[in-house]
Amino acid sequence: MADGQARSMGDQSQQLQAVDIARSIRFGLLSPLLESWQGRCIVITSMGKQSTGKSYLLNHLTGSSFAIAGARCTDGAWMTIRILPDDVLLVVLDFEGLGSFERTEQEDVFLSVLNASISMFTIFRMEMRYDKEIDDLFAKFQKGVALIKGDPALFRGKLYMSVKDVNPNDQRGVLGEFVGKFQKLLGANKESNFLTDLYSGKLDINCSPPLGTIGYYQSLMHAQSFIEGSLCASESMGFQTGKAFLNCIRLVLAKIAILDWTSLDEGAKQFQLSDVCSKLPGLVRTGCLVPQEYVMKEEPIAGYLKEDIRTSANGELLDIDIVTMCSLFPAMAEKWAVLNTSVDLDNLPDWKIDLGFDCCSTKDEITARVRKTIMELFQLFIGLSVNMRSARLTRESLSDFDTFLAYIIRRRKARVNLWAKETFNDRVPEEWKAVEQQFLGRFQALFTRCQSECAKCRLGCMETAAHSGTTDHDCGGSHFCEGRYGYCEAGGQVGKTPPCAKEAGHDGCCECRDGDHTCGAECCMAGSPNCGKRCSQKIGHTDLHKCDVAIHTCGESCSAKNCSGRCILSVESPHTAHKCVEVRCMEKCLMDECGELCGAMNHFHGQVDVAVAFSVENGDEKDAGIFDAASEVPVVHMCANGHSCQVLCAEEGICRVDVFLKQSSMIFKGARSKFQYTFQEMNGSRKKCCKELPPGQQIHQGAHTCMNATAAATGDVDGDQSKEEERTIHYCDERCPCCSYFCKKKFGHFGVHTTSHGNMRNTFFLSDMEEIDVEERKYRASEQGVAEMCNLYCSKMGREHVHYLECEQASRDRCVYAGSTADQRRHCTRVLEPKPEKEMDELLHEQFWKTLGWEDPCASKMERDLFGKCGYKCDAPDHDEKPSFCMLPAWHKQEQKSSTGYDGLSYVSGHKFECSHVASGGNTHHVF
To answer: Looking at the whole model, is its pTM more than 0.90?
Structure first.
């Protein structure tokens, strides 16, 4: 913002949503306590004018120690806690008084909304008179009615009016006055009022005797009995856990901070998703909840830092046994059942295995750390397997280890998945699929062992299958066989035999280095990569020198695309199509965000020429025909799993509305003033189609839609809706002409549009005066109104304020509006700054919003009625504290004094006043 004009906001700051801000909010040492509290949480709060004894009352009622003083001493909101019997945590919040000079009206409205949204019991401390200041406070409450909605956990408390300094003899009269005032207030706002919307219609009025009297302390028993009897004793009251309250208040604060009035329920889901994602690194590494700062350290994590994950139903340790694993992964069931005979898999708990590093990291150097962990798991496997305790390592041993590794990794993945879905309480956000693929899918791929052979011996490579092609294949061992010389063993020299001199993983019997049992000449196929190099036949044989390798492999690079393996075909059989040990296609699935390998069990899938050559050279008649590649159906690489449709929703309307904080504190620089304000913007986005595609299918019938078949057919999306399908609707795509917030109603709705409104980014000041003052903010004509909010701006402008629209007839002579109290619109005859390009009409508040087709942003009916009244004011000094205005409607005709006699009213220049002032010079009414 410069000289009151907007600059491009594209590069000003990173966009933040309420969820991002909520995660950064901390309450000091109270945050970890609340996060760990598993019992119920009851919240009580204070509210009221300054210096009415709110903090003093809370201190005596709850045993808290909030600061107290004769003057204003509470700034903002202060929190303390009390532990009550039956695992109930009482959270006490002391709010500063409303209506102070230090706070704007907008800040008072937000404080009242925050207070009402989270409190089960709001103590409204007030003086014994119901005056205009109390009316103003309740008017601020009314302005918060349309802001935060959409979560049944909010706005379910009671409003407790504690009237101070009431003598026992006056209690009945005070109660009668207050009840009458409330009935009048609520009667004026029958459709929507603060008591019904913010406190579910629950109100209690208690008269408190003066401080220092016995009656004052006895009156506290009324509130105490409600807290102990109705709140703490009822299992349905309050938040189920301390963490539920912590997350709720953080999210409410964040949404208020950026003026995000979209459904809190949707925000809560996103906050929950963000919370789950933040815990994934610890869960994937250890199978437990671990502080994030310890996950990144490559050192053992102490047991006291680990928190077991438990089921939400009964709090039992969340575990998955081998029977469940076999049902989840039927393709691996047979291998795991065989492995379980040599390794007791259920006796190896998932939470006992620490993988040693942040497995969710995306850094390139992570593959080196994966190899170390695979080696550690291999050592664990050797120690557990009864088949490995006295045998030398073979390639078959590595095959068993691959089965063991697959079980460990898939079990960890399954436990994390199960925990996440329980955390979401079966309301899994659609973004979870992408998160699952990004973190858990990659995790599984990282811990898939490379199937190539070690470059220095015949054991398998211990690198991850995703390791770089520039890295040598390495088994991680000494590369020497650890067996004993077989011929010596056969000759009865058990226990005295020398170690084998062959490379690790060799075929045939072991041989000692210096023995004379075998020929030892160079093998005739020494060029083969798996050749034993030395002839293993007995000394004196007459045929070709051959080592103990049954089949000498070719060793050339595999002909399959994206395969780094080496050919295992015999070097003795001439061939042009080289084939490694892998049998499945190595191409990635073509579906977006899948990442799995193609499900075809054909290593040369999609390579017709190579497949034909391989079949002909190896005597396989199945694929040995002659193919015309041009006539073949295009090859489709798809995995064996189902997929979610990745096409964007094509339904009309807006799938989701997001509010972004562009910059937490922007600066308005105008010609007359410079001040800070908060700017946020609302954007609409489209979700992906919710249709599920069966395995092998790329498209589905019907239109792409994000809405379930059972989506609700009616309703305002901001309402109290508990079922997922009731929230899966499309928003109206109309934006408020002033602030660009989307209408929050269902697409295709009838009647006017409605929203909760934000910064008036599309407006500028138009006036017949060059200088405009909006309370303490000073503007000049032509400057933008981006620092103001639609509803609060109109409240500040008050009586008879006008808005401008282009004249429909573009001429004063043809304009059809006369400016009567009925049409509330007339042609503008004033000279405006800046001079408009077209003729303008001026409209009163009510008619302006009706003409735009939007619901009035001001929730208070009393305030809306005030906007339609005449703005002429009595200038007598008696009204400095409470101005007196003309009683007639805005733009009224001149009212003449009645000829029948004095009616108790004053008439000045055609305006009618209730007040009357007589002085030596006559009436002192001065109208401006």
So the answer is: no
